[in-house]
Amino acid sequence: MSYSGARVSKARRQHLLGRVLAEHAVTSQEQIVELLATEGVTATQATVSRDLEEVGAVKVRVPGSDRLVYAIAELPRDQLLPEDHLRRVLGEWVVDVAFSGNIVVVRTPPGSAHVVASALDRSALEGVLGTVAGDDTVLIVSEEPRGGKALAARVGEIAGR
Amino acid sequence: MSYSGARVSKARRQHLLGRVLAEHAVTSQEQIVELLATEGVTATQATVSRDLEEVGAVKVRVPGSDRLVYAIAELPRDQLLPEDHLRRVLGEWVVDVAFSGNIVVVRTPPGSAHVVASALDRSALEGVLGTVAGDDTVLIVSEEPRGGKALAARVGEIAGR
DNA sequence: CATGACTATACACGCTGCTGCATACTGATC
DNA sequence: GATCAGTATGCAGCAGCGTGTATAGTCATG
Q1: Is B2 among the domain residues?
Q2: Strand C nearby residues, CB < 7 A
Q3: A150 and A83: one domain?
Q4: pTM
Q5: Do B87 and B154 belong to one domain?
Q6: Span B9-20, pLDDT tens digits
Q7: Where are the alpha helices (DSSP H) in chain B?
Q8: For residue B71, what is the domain's CATH number?
Q9: For the complex shown, is ipTM > 0.85?
């Protein structure tokens, strides 16, 4: 294994992948490999396959043609943050959990509240009305009048406490 | 090596460390180990030593006494985010950098803009007037009228591009 | 059903971060 | 200067992630 790569982060590669799909009508993963290469990013077909999956890309039929091109499915993504991803984010960044009434207060390291809130939002956690994030604090509003306790327990459990 | 630990994240342990220091007048790292243990977190003196350093704790003299107790130095921390930490954060989360006039536009994965902005703020990067973070975008305002270009280059360089 | 193009995946492996153990270092006290 | 309490750190090991290689699976076409 050369492992020449690791020069760019996975996040950046997947971002570029999105741009490539938006700008070119690609029909195969090998094409993506080449296009990424022209952007200075090296990756193999295997990696592209995994990226496509993670980014939520699908092959769609081009109207008026029988070609299948890759495209990123925008909306459904937001609902489908995988459980173990949420578990990783919370386990890593959640530092404390408390509650009062229907509000759960989640503490995080400074500046990290939005990452946690975003993960919670996208995970479609049961019984969550909404979230607000400050700098190091996330408020989760429960649907139930006194639902804070149960929700806090659930969050704490996911965070691995 | 037992390695029974790793049950709690480093972030959480350090958060607890802060609470412990605030609530108890501790004079030795061994005491901290014990206090953490009562909170259900196991760590050795070596780890506590490293945590204290990372958190920016110092030993201060108790007024009217000759005891030295640990305390967290609040303010200086914000100025002193180490260079390689910034490098890690940017390298991991910055996905694209652009500029116009005196504004640098940094793109990040969804929900991660605040982590990046927070790291930038705390790093006291040269020539930065301020930052604003949305969901996946950070705006950096340069001090110089046309400083965007240079600043973008600097940010890109730190991010490893 | 054979073939070929394309994609997904089992496997192995390197890298990095975190941690404990053992030990070197430091500073105070006598 | 010897001793001792307390702290920092070199070293090694482990875990998890990300990735490439090789290969198995899938699907369309003839």
Answers
A1: no
A2: A 1, 3, 6, 27-30, 45-46, 49-50, 52-53, 59; B 1-3, 5-6, 10, 13, 42-47, 50, 88
A3: yes
A4: 0.83
A5: yes
A6: 999 999 999 999
A7: 10-23, 29-38, 45-55, 74-79, 83-93, 113-123, 148-159
A8: 1.10.10.10
A9: no
